[in-house]
Amino acid sequence: MSRFDLTKTVMRQGVWQGVLTARSGEEDAPEIAVTHLGNAVEGVTVTAQEVAGRWDLNVPIPAEAVADGVQTLIISDQSTGDQLGHITLIAGEALGDDIRAEMDLLRAELDMLKRAFRRHCRETS
Which of 10, 118, 108 is nearest to 57 (CA)? Predict the structure, then answer.
């Protein structure tokens, strides 16, 4: 079990941001490692907040992680090896197929609801 909880706050301008919270009054800043395809991601920063036991985590998304398909960056506690979380990026044609399929399902459900609503209006008028 990890010593820290990781909560995503925002991803903006190519930087993923989150908050690390110590589970058991940990005072020392955590040593965080972020990897993509087994390679270390450079530029990761951990900054203490004013509240004891909380740190801001900033992970710059490397250019090589922006590619077609699904890319995953693994965030882990370097001292224990525990995985704290992950960042998943989806781009390109893989995403397009998923969105098209979801849109088809939404259209079918909307058509079904329209028919049911019209039938209800005819029966109650």
Answer: 10
**Sequence-separated (6 or more) residues with CB below 8 Å from residue 40:** 33, 34
Strands 83-91 and 69-77 come out as antiparallel
Which residues does 99 contact at the CB level (< 8 Å), separation at least 6? Answer: none
The structure tokens listed for 42 are 């450079």
Spatial distance between the Cα atoms of 124 and 63, rounded to a whole number of angstroms: 59
Separation of alpha carbons 8 and 57, rounded Å = 9
Sheet containing strand 69-77, edge to edge, reads 39-40, 32-36, 69-77, 83-91
The pLDDT tens digits of the residues spanning 73-112 come to 999 999 888 999 999 998 877 666 777 778 888 998 998 9
d(CA 94, CA 97): 6
